[in-house]
Amino acid sequence: MDFINELKMKQDIVNKHLESLMNVENAPKSIVEAMKYSLLGGGKRIRPVLGISFCEALGGRIEDVLTFSCAIELIHTYSLIHDDLPAMDNDDFRRGRPTSHKVFGEAMAILAGDSLLNYAFEIMLNEVVKNNCQPRFVHAAKVISNASGITGMIGGQVMDIQNEDRKVNIDELIVMHSMKTGALIEASCLIGCIIAGREDKIEDVKEYSRKLGIAFQIVDDILDCIGNSEKLGKMVGSDAANHKSTFVTILGLEKSKKFAKEYSEKAKSIAHTIDSTGFIPALTDYLLNRDY
Ligand code: GRG
């Protein structure tokens, strides 16, 4: 199967599982509707695709990691809803549609984000219990918890807010993004390795995902500067409007492109040693050359 068809197939697997996870009973319809609006209305599903691809490449079963990978997508979606709020980046469009607070109001958008975060932990713990608390399932849940918390994504978001209106240097920017964007990408890859039972590959997978995380963020900064808002499904120029230092403002456009390519190439060379099918190396290229 060629790369694009395999990517679509994996995105389909993820989307179907996300839909089935959202068949929630005994909750107010309004909150489930707001959760579904943001979760099921688009998105590249890169994080869960990485999770199932690493698990598969390392000899594990997709069905064993799928719920954990979808839990990461729920956490990612909550972070987008909260990041778009007026108190944060104050954005009106996301994934090609008005943001959650524009449709449901601020209070409901906050609760939709909170609910996605909580529900992510509910579905992970159900999966841990279903698998008799085997250490690899407990370990995967711990990795996701750490990555989404104060030493990971939230910690990075705090640094980002505190850096507004301040000129940061490239090293500070890399540390901040390794936490804000990188931690969840790293966890996405690591859980595939952990659930496959391949602890021997953890360091390689960490190294791969850290390089990928930086490349991914540089591309995100480049697209926020020169991307097409229709393709991206969100307004461009949000970083400049919020007076944020980005790879583009610090390095300039051409050097940022070169930097992203270097990080991506390093990631790809590690991916070749992990995935003999070639899918993860091709995904690494795809994420570098994406236009949304
Ligand atoms: C806890 C409020 C809060 C925020 C955490 C990750 C984050 C910080 C905020 C998200 C906002 C943002 C634009 C981050 C930069 C990189 C990034 C995560 C981009 C979006 O990810 P994609 O391209 O999006 O995978 P899709 O829509 O395809 O899932």
Please give the structural blueprint.
Layout: H1 3-21, H2 29-39, H3 46-57, H4 62-83, E1 93-94, E2 97-98, H5 100-104, H6 106-130, H7 135-148, H8 153-163, H9 170-195, H10 202-226, H11 229-232, H12 238-241, H13 247-251, H14 253-274, H15 279-289
Antiparallel strand pairs: 1-2
Helix pairs in contact: 1-3, 2-6, 3-4, 3-9, 4-6, 4-9, 6-7, 7-9, 8-9, 9-10, 10-14, 10-15, 14-15
Geranylgeranyl diphosphate (GRG) is lined by residues 43-44, 46, 76, 79-80, 82-83, 88, 95, 153-154, 157, 180-181, 217, 220.
- Please report which band the strand proportion falls in: under 5%, 5-15%, 15-25%, 25-35%, 35-45% or over 45%: under 5%
How far apart are the first and last residues' alpha carbons, in Å? 23 Å
Rg from C-alpha positions?
18 Å
Helix content: over 70%
Estimate the global geometry from the Cα principal axes.
Answer: globular
Beta-strand segment tally: 2
Mean pLDDT: 96
Unique ligands: geranylgeranyl diphosphate
Poorly predicted runs: none
Please list the strands of the largest sheet in the order they lie side by side.
1-2
Structural class by helix and strand composition: mainly alpha
H and E order? HHHHEEHHHHHHHHHHH
Tally of alpha and pi helices: 15
Sheet having the most strands: 2 strands, antiparallel
